[in-house]
């Protein structure tokens, strides 16, 4: 499984022959100026919620690739009104089987509205179970006891957790979340893009070390294999 980071909370997963993109916010992000959105290939686009810093480039990438957008019922309706046809609506607690594995939509504690102010349903995270790896993509969320339900149903290999504070968990809460989900490997997200979520990387790495967790802070454009 290859993972490429495009900044903020946007990751592209290459799972077998399938390319699965999460929360594309690239073109307005000055930190991701080296990334050409039109070069990104995606079969599926998973959107955790409707805020602009998670959906901005979804329509363009979906049109370029004939991608299927997977999101809450309200978000897929919004894209349907824009003329997109490859849409899979979900809601919290639901699960769908796709060519690369299963996707379960789980609870996130966060607000959600689309860039024009349209109600976007509730914010969500995803648990993705593939043939070789299972991972938890938290989206934007506070620390919540609901996370403790995840390892009761899934054997999670790693988690992608927000660490930027202010709008989401900080790194301290993220390490507790990692304990709740029962993972030792965490990929950090939702940091540095805006002044409100700037982090001290040395400090957050020390927090992770003290929690006995492996915290991975990817560079924009970097690809790793897990």
UniProtKB/TrEMBL annotation:
Q: Which PANTHER family match?
A: UPF0173 METAL-DEPENDENT HYDROLASE MJ1163 (PTHR43546:SF3), UPF0173 METAL-DEPENDENT HYDROLASE MJ1163-RELATED (PTHR43546)
Q: Which UniProt keywords apply?
A: Hydrolase
Q: Which family does it belong to?
A: Belongs to the UPF0173 family.
| Gene3D superfamilies per record | Ribonuclease Z/Hydroxyacylglutathione hydrolase-like
Recorded hits in HAMAP family, A to Z, give:
UPF0173
Q: What is the lineage of its organism?
A: Bacteria, Pseudomonadati, Bacteroidota, Cytophagia, Cytophagales
Return the protein name. Answer: UPF0173 metal-dependent hydrolase CA264_04770
SMART domains in the record: Lactamase_B
């Amino acid at each position: 499984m290859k993972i490429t980071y495009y900044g903020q909370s946007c990751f592209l997963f290459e799972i077998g022959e399938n390319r699965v993109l999460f929360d594309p916010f690239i073109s307005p992000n000055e930190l991701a100026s080296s990334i050409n959105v039109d070069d990104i290939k995606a079969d599926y686009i998973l959107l955790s919620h409707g805020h602009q810093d998670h959906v901005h480039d979804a329509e363009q990438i979906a049109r370029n690739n004939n991608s299927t957008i997977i999101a809450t019922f309200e978000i897929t309706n919004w894209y349907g009104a824009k003329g997109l046809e490859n849409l899979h609506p979900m809601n919290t607690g639901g699960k769908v089987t796709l060519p690369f594995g299963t996707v379960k939509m789980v609870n996130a504690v966060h607000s959600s509205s689309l860039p024009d102010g349209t109600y976007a349903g509730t914010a969500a995270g995803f648990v993705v179970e593939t043939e070789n790896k299972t991972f938890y993509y938290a989206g934007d969320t506070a620390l919540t006891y609901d996370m403790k339900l995840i390892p009761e149903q899934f054997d999670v290999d790693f988690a992608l957790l927000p660490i930027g504070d202010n709008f989401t968990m900080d790194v301290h809460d993220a390490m507790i979340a990692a304990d709740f989900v029962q993972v030792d490997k965490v990929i950090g997200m939702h940091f540095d893009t805006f002044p409100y979520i700037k982090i001290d990387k040395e400090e957050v790495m020390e927090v992770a070390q003290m929690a006995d967790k492996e915290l991975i802070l990817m560079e924009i454009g970097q690809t790793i294999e897990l």
